Amino acid sequence: MSQPDDSAILSRPRYGKLSPVEANFHVFVADDSGGNSILSLAQSVPKDFFNDAEIIYINTKPVDNKATLEGLEALGCPRLYTGPTIKAALPRINASLERMRMGTQVYLAGSESLLGLATMIAMQVGLDHQALQTEHQGSLARRVQCVHCKGITDNVTTQPANCDHCGLLLLVRDHYSRRVAAFQGVNINAEDPSDIPVKEEMFS
Amino acid sequence: MATSAKDLPFKQETYRNDFTFKNSPETVLRAPFPFDKDSYMYAVNMELHRDGRPGTAFEAPIDVDEHYVAEMQDRALVLDEDPLRYQSLPHMSLAGWDTLELLMTCKAETYPQWFSLTRNGDNWHWINRPMGIDQHFVFGDESTLPYGPLEYITRQAQGDFCVLDERDDNLWMDAGMITTQADWSLDFDIGMNFFEWHAPVPLAHEKGIFIRALKYLRTIQQGNPARRLNWTMTVNPRLDTSPENFHIWGPENTHITPENVADKLYLRIELQSFWRLPRSNALLFPIRCYFLSMRDLSTVPKWATRMHRVLQTLPPEIASYKGLDNYRQIAIDWLAQHDDGSPTTEGPFPD
Amino acid sequence: MSSNATLDVVVSDVVTVNSLIKRFHFVRPDGSPLPAFSGGAHIVIEMQDGDTIRRTPYSLMSSPLNTTDYQVSIRRDDEGRGGSLYMHQQVTKGMPMRIGYPANLFSLDKRAPKQLMFAGGIGITPFLAQIHQLLKTNGNFELHYSARNEKLGAYVSELKQLIGHRLHVYYDDQDQRIDFDNLLSTQPAGTHVYVCGPAPMIDHVLTRCKAHGWPKAHTHFEHFAKAPPGEPFTLELRASNKFIEVGENQSMLEAIEAAGVDAPYLCRGGACGHCETDVLECDGTLLHEDHWLEDDERTSSRKVMPCVSRFKGQRLVLDR
């Protein structure tokens, strides 16, 4: 399977910019610099907007994010959760989305991995993915599913990349599945395993 | 002289390892050759799927040919290795029953010597003689079948089957049985919409092909199925050219030589049909695969000539996407002996 | 695709439901089951009304699990162009008729953990079929049904028997109103909302959904527009090289069909988009009545839905 250049293909998620909409309740999920997207939205909403809101903030770099976290705390949101990693926060994200009532607007901001995983959880609780607002901030490191062994490798920044599970050298495609929240990885040198392309930093 | 598929005995053959698959001359002639002119470009080449031309793969709404039993054995092997090739999202159960009903009734009506369906209310009795199956079950009750309805019936039907849910003005790939695919993964693509699962196809998006195709597909109504043809090429008659196993079959792409091209390289034709399913309002999208070796093609002079010209003029992006780069020129060189430069007659059928 | 598949049927029963509504039953001439269909589907009924063939969509209300007959309920519309009057006055038991295959523009989203349904008046009919389907699959749903008064509340007692406490009925003359704001604020994640009824009710529900932050993908409605009567006009069909008259009580689509020109259609109510036609020249005003075209397409006068829309002016040329 020789690969054409498939940049910006239609299965690649497109992200926008968070903007406040009418809703009964607002749930924000953000990591690291994604917190700034919430602060930026906060500048254009009435003072009591965050009375009916919840913020889930994943703070993997507490030193860098000090100002962002203080800004989020100052919004006066009755529920502000901070977690150390995306993985640690997943059960919390799930609990919040599962219990939400219709009429809740969900806003996601941050790394591509966070946007993907939170979208996956929202779909699992029955929300249509088109109902979510997303804004990308920070890392473009990819979650990649190996099409051969089905294992998922986190934080892939190179092209090609090795599968953490079966070890095959994978071409990281732009083809993306919301259901598994991952890009597709396909063995890059199947036709000639002795041909080993040089890895280049592509997604960071 | 055209021969009906009904007259042919079922072959014992393989689609892997020793690759004993072989078309009889009658089966070559009834193949749905995909080129109606001497060049190829993507198009929304849809037509109504009805009133089949005798002696062709279009004769029956759901075609059964001499490869039926061997193809079903190959499917069972694929599913033993990787059960994820069949999947159905929870909301697609009703569409599974729709599919079962459609395939059973079509087959029993077209091929009564092989299949029979007796209904008494919801109590159904299905006989599939070529596969030695005799099954009583309750329509709508999954516990009365050895598999879910979609898996059960597509283990007995040639070709891949996608089941598309329709909502939000789009079609969603929410269930399927995919073991004979031209290099795409159901496990990865399940849940995607029409544009997303076609995203890797080059050029066609820019030409607006998929927007028009989707518009057409959504107008398909009960009782009015449609069809189109697609194609690629495959080294060896391997049905299971999945991305999952690309690291296993990929090396074969480099094995074509001028000496073996005639018998080792195959035109892989997909007869795709589209059916509105009544109870679920879903769309059934069967993709039936036909293999013709370059030597098979050479038995029909018009087809060999046309194949030569199509490969010569194919845009490089499409050739790359279809994975032809390793052997395209070898095939062109071999086919050249069947092209004297004279014009071909219109349409896809043999002269 | 213009060649719509049709079914020959016989009217097996005509039942007066109340002072405005009659129910019609159709069977195959040989008594064999009709094709299966999905809840929310409609059929287009062909009516030979004198020299005119009318084709009007009606939602199937009978159970999709039992297709020995198809049933539709039709409310008499004394102001309309006559489709419902024809059905009420001319159609009798034993009459042969022709109908289209069922088609569904109001399908349930089967992923939903809960379906919330709002029906107004005769808009109850698609929900009846959907409810039979949901009962079979143990679906989670509730139905809020408003009618002018008890006498006009068709099928309330049948529904009570069928779904018990999942039915909530509201009568206008008893000042009972559906509390949309409360209902739309309390639904669990993933709920889908459906509305079928008079246009103002649909508009109201859609507006309240938006105000409460419901995503568009979770809101569904069905409303078949009716081609209103209007001033007759002349229409040029460029592709078929014909000039035709569109009568006062005729839609453009009906006039096109009467001239022997094959035109695509599905819902004939301005909802599905199948009959969308390019306008080549327009000296005058298109009177758009559909739910299909985007606002810019409407104002540009380059597209029209001939099943429901009309024209007022000097000259109209369509690409048909």
Produce a short descriptive summary.
The complex is a heterotrimer of chains A (204), B (351) and C (320). Chain B has 13 helices and 10 strands.
Descriptive report:
The complex is a heterotrimer of chains A (204), B (351) and C (320). Chain A has 204 residues and is an alpha/beta fold. Chain A contains four helices and twelve strands. Helix content of chain B is 29%, strand content 21%. In chain B, the strands form two sheets. Chain B has a seven-stranded antiparallel β-sheet with strand order 1-8-9-10-6-7-2. In chain B, strand 9 and strand 10 form a beta hairpin. Chain B starts with 24 loop residues before the first helix and ends in a 16-residue tail after the last helix. With 320 residues, chain C is an alpha/beta fold. In chain C, the strands form three sheets. In chain C, strands 1, 2, 3, 4, 5, 6 and 7 form a seven-stranded antiparallel β-sheet that branches. Chain C has a five-stranded parallel β-sheet with strand order 10-9-8-11-12, sandwiched between helices. A five-stranded mixed β-sheet of chain C has the order 14-13-17-15-16. The longest helix of chain C has 13 residues. The radius of gyration of chain C is 20 Å and the shape is globular. Chains in contact: A-B, A-C, B-C. At the A-B interface, strand 10 and strand 11 of A face helix 5, helix 6, helix 8 and helix 12 of B.
